[in-house]
TrEMBL record:
Transmembrane found in the keyword field: yes
Domain of life from the UniProt record: Bacteria
GO biological process, alphabetically ordered: copper ion transport; response to copper ion
Protein name, entry field: CopC domain-containing protein
Source organism (scientific name): Lentzea albida
GO molecular function, one term: copper ion binding
Positions of the CopC domain: 25-119
GO cellular component, one term: cell envelope
Renumbered residue ranges of the record's region Disordered: 127-147
Pfam families documented for this protein: CopC
Parts of the chain that traverse the membrane: 159-177
Compartment annotation: Cell envelope
Keywords: Copper, Membrane, Metal-binding, Signal, Transmembrane, Transmembrane helix
Signal sequence, start to end: 1-26
Length: 186
């Protein structure tokens, strides 16, 4: 019985050793506009930079919702290496908190998602009005996400955690069964 138990534990440990490295997912490293940023003018693009190469998901890569619940139109989403860039209709943005929901496909094929917010203090101007000064737009475009912003994004619990829990349960059941078995007499 000890040989079977040892073989089972060794097999499970070997299986988890090969699975753990393959389950890494892309994580959002920075964004433009940055998470929690306050902008004086609406951004013309949204840029997301990830920890590894990504591709566009099957659905929308970026969705922006204003404080009043209206969607800001997002067009021309592109993924190049570890960056997703999308053009937005800045004239549709209004003052207030905007939520950016994002999705990206990791190199392993799994889709990771997350969200962050930024605030605009001035509503977008229509095309007949004077445009906002470019220096304001430029200063907003150079911001990066603070390290705490990555905590909001999560692709779920990694598979290796579930495998580790399963391993602990299996070992616990085997030990419990062995302990309850009466000793064999020769």
């Amino acid at each position: 019985m000890t040989r079977y138990f040892s073989a089972l534990v060794l097999a499970l440990l070997t299986a988890t050793a090969f699975v753990v490295p393959a389950q890494a997912h892309a994580e959002l490293k920075s964004s433009n506009p940055a998470s929690g940023a306050t902008l004086d003018a609406p951004p013309k693009t949204v840029e997301l930079v990830f920890s590894e190469s990504i591709s566009l998901p099957d659905g929308d890569a970026i969705t922006i919702t204003g404080a009043d619940g209206t969607k800001v139109p997002v067009t021309q989403a592109n993924a190049v290496d570890s960056t997703i860039t999308a053009t937005i209709d800045a004239s549709a943005a209004k003052s207030g908190v905007h939520t950016v929901d994002w999705a990206a496909k990791s190199a392993d094929g799994d889709t990771v998602t997350g969200k962050f917010t930024f605030t605009m203090t001035v509503a977008a101007q229509t095309s007949s009005s004077a445009a906002a000064p470019t220096t304001t737009t430029t200063s907003a475009a150079t911001s990066t996400a603070p390290p705490a912003a990555a905590a909001e994004e999560s692709g779920g619990v990694p598979i290796w955690v579930w495998l580790l829990v399963a391993l602990v349960v299996v070992v616990g059941v085997i030990l419990l069964v062995r302990r309850r078995k009466p000793a064999e007499t020769p």
